[in-house]
Design goal:
By secondary structure, this protein is of the alpha+beta class. It is 34% helix and 17% strand. The strands form three sheets. A six-stranded mixed beta sheet has the order 2-10-7-8-5-4. β4 and β5 form a beta hairpin. α3 packs across α6. The protein is globular, with a radius of gyration of 23 Å. 28% of the residues are buried.
Amino acid sequence: MLIDTAPDDWAWRSLGELCELQAGPSPSLLPKDAYVPDGVVPVVQPKHLRDRWVADARGTAVPYDKAQRLLRFALREGDILCARTGTVGPVAHVRAGQVGWLFGSNLIRLHRFAPEVCPAYLLAYLSLSRATEWIKSRSEKTTVPSISKADLQTLPVRLPAWSEQKRIAGALGALDEQVARHVEVARAATRLHKGLADQLLGLVALHGPTAPSSADTFPERTFR
């Protein structure tokens, strides 16, 4: 059972009662050869679901005409994506800049939410370790773990009043914003480090007057 210590006035609902679930396109509709280097419409994969955000998926894209034939899998702002194969359980929400992207075969979309549920609260709830454990426990025990849409929609959700959902979602969403900013700062620092290292050390290695031809020619280090 999930969140069994919540207040008594929090209702139990199944995930399927709170939103519609849609599985990604079958491999026949979106085969591997549909992805091309010059594709213009990104396709979100499980690897792009990071810390409840959808990361840049422009590296896996399909041509515009192919995307037009898959419009029923086009993302809308506020959709929630859930990985259903491989590392099942990670979730992320779709932002405004990702509207029109597609979601891939290994994802399930949660959308068309019921009036009584706040999507941001549902995102937070699905991120709980106990929710992830529930999903994993019901995944098919095959070479590649997977959970079906039918099984996922039975996931029990503890639902407080709307005002409490908004309060919880607001507090956790603010922390997610902080995490996203810190991650971007870390990535920028990593890029800066690489660029600076290339400038400071790359030229020395390439143009130094006594640059060794291989690692074996470095002088042996002595210690005192």
